[in-house]
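Much of our argument rests on the idea that a fold can be written as discrete symbols. The amino acid sequence and the backbone structure tokens for this protein are reproduced below:

___
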Amino acid sequence: MEATKKYHIEKNTVQETLIIPLFARKVCSEKFPQLFNDQEAVRICRMLDYDFAAKAKKMNGSVGLFGALEVAQRQYDLAWEVRDYLTNHPNASVVNLGCGLDDTFRKCDNGSCHGFNIDMPDVIKVRNELLPEGEREENLACDLNDFSWMNKISETNPIENGAVFFASGVFYYFKTEEVKKLVCKMAEVFPGAILVFDSCNQRGAKLLTKTWLKEAGIKDVSAFFSLEDEAVLHSWSSSFKSVSSKSYMRGYRDIYKEVSFFHKLMIKFCEKSVRMRIVKIIF
């Protein structure tokens, strides 16, 4: 029966890496219902032919659960920025850079904006099965370093309508020069738009090599993107009108009182020692 057909996820493939943040959001909806209610994550996980036992065991531990909290709170933060931008630019393009299986556009859809979800062709292939395009929404198979995707957006929705770009856990996999070229080009093509993304310092990036970056084969993080201080971004382009940042876990809503003592310590560590931030650039 079509209703019971499940989408098979192979172990040790790009498909498996895509479902980790998805499962993390599902777990947080179960563990922290006062903070998160991601029924879409729950729905998609039910559609998958995949043994989540190992992932569930890991995320049941204090460290693994904090990783899940980071993922869920990051989506909340970025969605907050998208909604805020749409209040003054209701017809804007909402652009998810390196979208994976993230559904932020649907969570923020005001009925008149236009969503673009961009990722590599093998990722979009999976997305089209599990999160097919909705109304005013397009899944674009493209390398972010191939700037032709910018033309597609400007041709579909006039630049004057505005654009809000966001990248969730993406730039860590890019070399600093690649991020610089990408962001400067966006500022040139989309004046008046904003970009929001998560960042950490190099110490944080080194810690990530033991988890997320390890799966991408990244061992030496020195050339890859990290931020000790977002103020350095001002030197990248005169087209940046402003650069600011907020705390990852406390800047948009303070979840400090809602978590365990261990997680409180982790929040302090992430803020002071690895500078986990949500960075916002206004073009």
Strands lie at 7-8, 48-49, 93-97, 114-119, 137-141, 163-167, 194-199, 242-247, 277-282.
